[in-house]
Design a protein that fits this description.
Helix content is 41%, strand content 12%. By secondary structure, it is α+β, with helices and mostly antiparallel strands. The chain has one domain: Orthogonal Bundle (Arc Repressor Mutant, subunit A), CATH 1.10.10. Helix 1 packs across helix 2, helix 2 crosses helix 4 and helix 3 crosses helix 4. It is globular and about 50 Å long. The N and C termini lie close together (9 Å). InterPro entries: Ribosomal_eS19 (IPR001266), Ribosomal_eS19_CS (IPR018277), WH-like_DNA-bd_sf (IPR036388), WH_DNA-bd_sf (IPR036390).
């Protein structure tokens, strides 16, 4: 068993969980006031009811709230807060691996199949406001910065921060 040196040496699932915990402990991530009523994409219909949703590899499977406030429970709001931070950790990892990603790229990355009833399903983008807010939060924390060629890129302090979190994860050698 050895420790990882960079984000590329670690499983994406393990890194996102570790970095989300790091972001949560730092307290720098501010949630918008509209998190309890936001719908994170045109393809989403209902809020997550599964408490095991926290352990899903892809955070976008759990992000889906509808507008009626009677559907939103306190437990679901806590789930959403945790998923929002995991979503931010996942976005930071993707910017680390391939820079130059912007809001539109994240809409396509975290989008998925939109159900159309009896009609065939089509691709539906995820919400741009959620991705934009997370990118602005990561930029305020100086993890990412605006790339002059378009999109965002990781800063040197952000790269160091992500590598430190990855270095705490134990990797099993093949």
């Amino acid at each position: 068993m050895a420790t990882a040196r960079t984000v590329k040496d670690v499983s994406s699932h393990e890194f996102v969980k570790s970095y989300a915990g790091h972001l949560k402990r730092s307290g720098k991530m501010e949630l918008p006031e509209w998190t309890d009523i936001v719908k994170t994409g045109v393809r989403k219909e209902l809020a997550p009811y599964d408490p095991d949703c926290l352990f899903d590899l892809n955070p976008q499977h759990c992000l889906g709230f509808t507008n009626p406030s009677y559907l939103i429970l306190d437990f679901q709001y806590v789930l959403y807060i945790i998923q929002f931070i995991e979503f931010a950790a996942s976005m930071a990892r993707k910017i680390y691996l391939r820079g130059g990603l912007g809001v539109g790229a994240f809409q396509r990355i975290y989008g998925g199949s939109k159900r159309n009833g009896s009609r065939p399903p089509h691709f539906g983008k995820s919400s741009g406001s959620v991705a934009r807010h997370i990118l602005q939060q990561l930029q305020a924390m100086s993890i990412v910065e605006v790339d002059p060629r378009g999109g965002r890129k990781i800063t040197s302090s952000g790269r160091r921060d992500l590598d430190q979190v990855a270095g705490r994860i134990v990797v099993v050698a093949p």
